[in-house]
């Protein structure tokens, strides 16, 4: 006889660890840049460059890349200082992770502050949070049939599971043009640029991932005039493209974490010969996982009326996707502005979502977090033409998930779809944002499966001493299958003798059980 087994490709989270690190470094202003009068804005991004697993520990290397926007001299009223602070951290994983495991690090900046030590030197301090996730791709295996002996009686169970179709990292290059409208000055010199993602949608097609969405391009520039004027421009860059995902189709569920890898910006002439066209190329990083649903027919038990046949069980683990949900919520609030600088106009509002907690409740999950808000605005001070203020807006979302369990695995990504701000007098700004949480919820299934079997000849002498017909009193928890297996008969035989219309029995019922031939 032979067991027929089926393997199911799955993704399992082994460990999720949170660490916080503090960074502190000083940086000199390059000789080609003007002296600094005041800091106007700080912005940073954590880039993880290398992850290695050794003896259950993740060795993480990367850097905090920062940009400080500062007030310079008259010829260059706004300038930026860029640099990076190296990160080298070792994180103990809460499992026996191996080199084959996939380690991902999700980073957020809790606090980033620049300090003007003197006109040629800045200090940069930051607190960085890192969530280190260890995942393994493994094959859940289960017996689905047994062949080679017609006397074998089989019991099977249908189970809905989710299998991992694809796990890959890739990049997508997007190129487009923006044009400065005629109501604004032409570009003489770009002083600062920034690209941020807005709404991004992904779906699976036949052997491909289709991406669409938008990015925001923000520029601060000097005009091309005899007396250059400080200007800004913001435009929307459409995003679209496809990534090869062999083996996927429209029925699959996808979760894609999308980020900006790099960007290149070039100023070109328009049809009138003026520098108003901005050619922008964005390279997107994609971390893609695609899942497919499958109904598995598992062999859960078997026996023979002619042989001593005993299945050998072991525990296998499966996942079942119960919900994919993209939840949106509006967040409004007021952020105080720096009283030392009277605001004239808001130039740019940015926000970063940080999820501080998620809690499984009876009908779903409660998500709590904050939006880190940064407001860049034009001030009335000619010496410091731009100023920035920051603050936080808390948010809560209740996401309904039918069939959720206390130990369900919740995987989520969070971001900003829209954000805007308006001045409320001289002291505060009114901020409106839309937070988007993309969530996958899995139920973990622990199932005893048939891994092997043992076969022996029946003890015919012992069988001969057994009565040919017995009366059996059904005990609590008994099933007709178990009774038939214990007495080497079949459920059909028991139902026929006892004139049962179904295999449902109750504790206290008395059944007549007749011994099958078994031994000659």
State the end-to-end distance: 22 Å
Unreliable spans are none
> Pairing-aware structural class of the strands and helices?
mainly beta
Morphology: elongated
Q: Roughly what percent helix? A: under 10%
Radius of gyration: 33 Å
The number of helical segments is 3
Number of strands: 20
Can you summarize the main beta sheet? Answer: 3 strands, antiparallel
Report the sheet-strand fraction.
over 45%
Order of helices and strands: EEEEEEEEEEEEEEEEEEHEHHE
- Give the overall average pLDDT: 89
Strand order, largest beta sheet: 1-6-5
Write a compact overview of the structure shown.
Helix content is 4%, strand content 73%.
Overview of this protein structure:
The protein contains three helices and 20 strands. With 520 residues, the chain is mostly beta strands. β14 and β15 (364-379) form a beta hairpin. The longest helix has 7 residues, at 480-486.
Task: Give me the secondary-structure topology.
Blueprint: E1 2-28, E2 38-54, E3 57-71, E4 78-92, E5 102-118, E6 121-147, E7 152-179, E8 187-205, E9 208-223, E10 230-244, E11 253-269, E12 275-304, E13 307-336, E14 343-361, E15 364-379, E16 386-400, E17 409-424, E18 428-457, H1 460-465, E19 469-473, H2 480-486, H3 491-497, E20 510-514
Antiparallel strand pairs: 1-6, 2-3, 3-4, 5-6, 7-12, 8-9, 9-10, 11-12, 13-18, 14-15, 15-16, 17-18, 19-20
List descriptors.
single chain, 520 residues, mainly beta, 3-stranded antiparallel beta sheet, 20 strands, 4% helix, 73% strand, elongated
């Amino acid at each position: 006889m032979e067991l027929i087994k089926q393997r199911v490709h799955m993704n399992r989270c082994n460990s999720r660890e949170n660490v916080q690190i503090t960074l502190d470094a000083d940086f000199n202003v390059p000789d080609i840049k003007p002296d600094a009068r005041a800091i106007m804005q700080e912005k940073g991004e954590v880039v993880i460059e290398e992850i290695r697993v050794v003896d259950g520990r993740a060795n993480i290397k990367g850097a905090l890349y920062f940009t400080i926007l500062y007030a310079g001299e008259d010829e260059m009223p706004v300038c930026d200082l860029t640099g990076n602070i190296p990160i080298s951290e070792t994180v103990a994983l809460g499992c026996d992770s191996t080199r084959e495991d996939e380690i991902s690090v999700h980073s957020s900046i809790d606090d980033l502050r620049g300090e003007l030590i003197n006109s040629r030197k800045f200090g940069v301090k930051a607190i960085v949070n890192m969530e280190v996730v260890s995942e393994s791709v493994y094959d859940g295996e289960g017996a689905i049939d047994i062949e080679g002996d017609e006397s074998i009686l089989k019991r099977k169970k249908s189970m809905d599971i989710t299998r991992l179709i694809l796990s890959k990292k890739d990049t997508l290059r997007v190129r487009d043009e923006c044009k400065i409208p005629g109501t604004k000055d032409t570009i003489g010199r770009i002083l600062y640029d920034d690209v941020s993602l807005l709404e991004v949608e992904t779906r699976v097609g036949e052997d491909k991932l289709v991406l669409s969405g938008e990015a925001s391009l923000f520029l601060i520039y000097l005009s091309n005039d005899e007396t250059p004027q400080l200007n800004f421009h913001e435009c929307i860059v459409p995003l679209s493209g496809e990534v090869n995902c062999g083996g996927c189709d429209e029925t699959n569920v996808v979760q894609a974490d999308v980020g900006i890898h790099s960007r290149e910006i070039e100023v070109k002439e328009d049809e009138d010969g003026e520098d108003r066209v901005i050619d922008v190329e964005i390279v997107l990083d994609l971390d893609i996982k695609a899942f497919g649903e499958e109904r598995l027919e598992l062999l859960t038990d078997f026996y023979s009326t002619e042989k001593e046949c005993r299945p050998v069980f072991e525990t296998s683990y499966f996942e079942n996707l119960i919900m994919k949900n993209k939840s949106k919520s509006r967040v409004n609030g007021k952020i105080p502005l720096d009283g030392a600088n009277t605001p004239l106009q808001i130039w740019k509002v940015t926000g970063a979502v940080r999820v501080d907690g998620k809690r499984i409740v009876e009908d779903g999950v409660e998500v709590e977090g904050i939006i880190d808000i940064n407001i860049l605005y034009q001030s009335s001070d000619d010496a410091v033409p731009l100023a920035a203020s920051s603050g936080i807006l808390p948010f809560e979302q209740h996401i309904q998930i039918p069939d959720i369990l206390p130990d369900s695995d919740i995987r989520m990504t969070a971001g900003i779809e829209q954000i805007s701000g308006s001045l409320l007098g001289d002291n505060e700004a009114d901020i409106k944002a839309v937070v988007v949480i993309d969530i996958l919820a899995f139920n973990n299934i622990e199932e005893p499966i048939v891994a092997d079997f043992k076969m022996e000849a029946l003890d015919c002498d012992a069988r001969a001493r057994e009565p040919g017909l017995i009366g059996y009193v059904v005990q609590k928890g008994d099933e007709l299958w178990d009774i038939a297996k214990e007495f080497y008969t079949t459920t059909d035989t028991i139902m026929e003798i006892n004139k049962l219309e179904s295999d449902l029995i109750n504790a206290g019922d008395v059944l007549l059980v007749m011994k099958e031939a078994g031994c000659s």
